[in-house]
Amino acid sequence: MVKSTKVWTVPLGEQVNKTIPPAKLTVAMLISKIFGIFPFNELSELSTFWFVEAIVIRIIELIMVSISFYFCIQLIIQDRVKTLYLLLFVNTCTLFTTNLHLVSFYRNRKKWQIIVYSNKSHYHRKSDIYFYIDLIRIIIQFLINFSLFRLNKHYDFLTIRMCLHYAGFIDSIVINNFCGKLEILTKQMRTIDREIIKAKYFKVIIPTKLKQLAKRQNYLIDLAQNINNIFAIQNLIIYSRSIIGFICVTYEVIRISATLNIQSKQSFTSGVLEVLSYFGNILSTVYFCEQFSEEVENVHQQLFSTINKNLGTDINEEIHLHCVMNRNVKFTAGGCFNLDYALVVSVIGTTITYIVILLQL
Predict the structure, then answer these.
(1) CA 6 to CA 222: how far, in whole Å?
(2) More confident residue, 339 or 314
(3) Transmembrane residues, as ranges (predicted)?
(4) Cβ(108)–Cβ(229) under 8 Å?
(5) Most buried among 31, 36, 202, 261, by the most CB within 10 A?
(6) CA 235/CA 231 separation, integer angstroms
(7) What is the DSSP string of 35-72?
């Protein structure tokens, strides 16, 4: 009879240490709070003040969308149906993203609290850098579009551009929240990898220590899966819009490049910045997802190598089973498509095909 082996899992609250002092918030996280995207206090407990402020921001967004419908009427009168669809699409996506993000955080507030407690730090170096770059891009685009508005005095144009800028800004905040937590988990996974290598180097293989490291890896995988689930719908909306925007705006940039007047040059510059933004949203997220998955694989390889070199020692069979399972996280956007490098290649290929077909018509 085969002996059954119980696979250990780590309860999400097991390693939570609520005595951890609050970490200093970065500018990116502070902006998230102000715009109602991260309604938690310094200990990442749901804050009544910030949650009410987030609801107020959502109400203001709804009012602004209602006001923008006035310009929709003007677009119908001017027979600019495509522009009308763009405005409605952007506003609807933004409202869904912000409201679903708030609801998701509220429903998963316990899990989110555990994620932050386990990280011990709010500092997201690489993800924050991308956020600041995108913020500068939005400011430059706003200045360009405002100068275009002063030339043509089209209020509907300014309204649409403002909606696009705000939508891009919200996307950047949500992406920063998502990538930032994955970045910290990746750093912790890299620490586990180094500890195993260190133990192998000094030839001090302690089964209990090895089990603790494997257990910690399992715990970080659970946290990463929770992050993926919390951001599922938001990611689906953001990356679907980013893919569509990248394809369409790239074609517009190529079309505009055929003209040489000053207004077209400004539109061309703004379009290039927008293309870079859409592509950056996809690439940056895929990068952090792949980084975490690679670190998980590295830890698995180190565990396999350690076990193979110490077959005669008393290494717990649970560690063997953990290695055989080879757990990892499959990051997806709402379960509809995978957030990996294959997505980047697919988007580039689709864009090239789309543009070639349109140019031949």
Answers:
(1) 18
(2) 339
(3) 20-38, 50-77, 83-108, 129-149, 341-359
(4) yes
(5) 36
(6) 6
(7) TTS--B-TTSPBPHHHHHHHHHHHHHHHHHHHHHHHHH
Fill in the amino acid letter for 300: H
Tokens of 248: 């369409």
Structure tokens that stand for 7 in this block: 């696979």
| DSSP category for residue 40 | B
Contact (CB, 8 A) for 302 and 217: no
Q: Where are the domains of the chain?
A: 27-360
Dig out the tokens for 209 from the structure: 């220590």
Count CB neighbours of 326 within 10 A.
12
Asked if 33 contacts 50 with a C-beta cutoff of 8 angstroms, the reply is yes
For the four alpha carbons of 102, 84, 159 and 250, in that order, the dihedral sign comes to positive
Please, which residues have CB within 8 angstroms of residue 355's CB and are 6 or more apart in sequence? 250, 251, 254
Count how many residues are written for the chain: 361
Torsions phi, psi for 338 (to 5 deg): -80, 145
Among candidates 191, 228, 221, which has minimal Cα distance to 296?
221
* CA triple 215-46-100, angle to 5 deg: 90
- Write out the two tokens for 230: 């919390």
Q: Fill in the amino acid letter for 258.
A: A
Confidence of residue 283 (pLDDT cuts 50, 70, 90): very high
Amino acid of residue 22: P
CB 297 within 8 A of CB 330: no
